[in-house]
């Protein structure tokens, strides 16, 4: 009987350590996403495609796009802080197969981040370097998009991630509202 109790206790400790590791992987992924959000330009230059006129306010579109980027960064920071603070409170809920998949996802992110180091875009802007800077900007956006998708997948492995996402729901609502406003402004620019 004593042996059975010790075995159950040891299994709970191991399961708790795995859950902590999954939440730490999620926090690490969010940290990498935050770095990508900080280094990528806040808004896309596609806004300049339309001429400024009465129904197409490019300046307002730029400001809204910048505000969305700032809120996305803030949301990532809030979720990351929550996960770091509560990672020890996670409970184990994954099967062996699910744990294996979660570890593989985290490894993919680590390999991706190590092979795609952040490049500085503070070069002198000659014609050739301008093209290179645009390519770097596009690559930066691809990296950010990849990390966002992978972090969402890794979040499924951490039991506290849903609670942490709920703590950022007001920020997410602001992002959604601004995206709707930006979409409406974009339609106005396309009409004119």
TrEMBL record:
Residues 1-16 form the signal peptide. It comes from the Eukaryota. Residues 125-135 have a biased composition (Basic residues). Keywords: Signal. Residues 113-139 are annotated as: Disordered. This is Uncharacterized protein. It comes from Acrobeloides nanus.
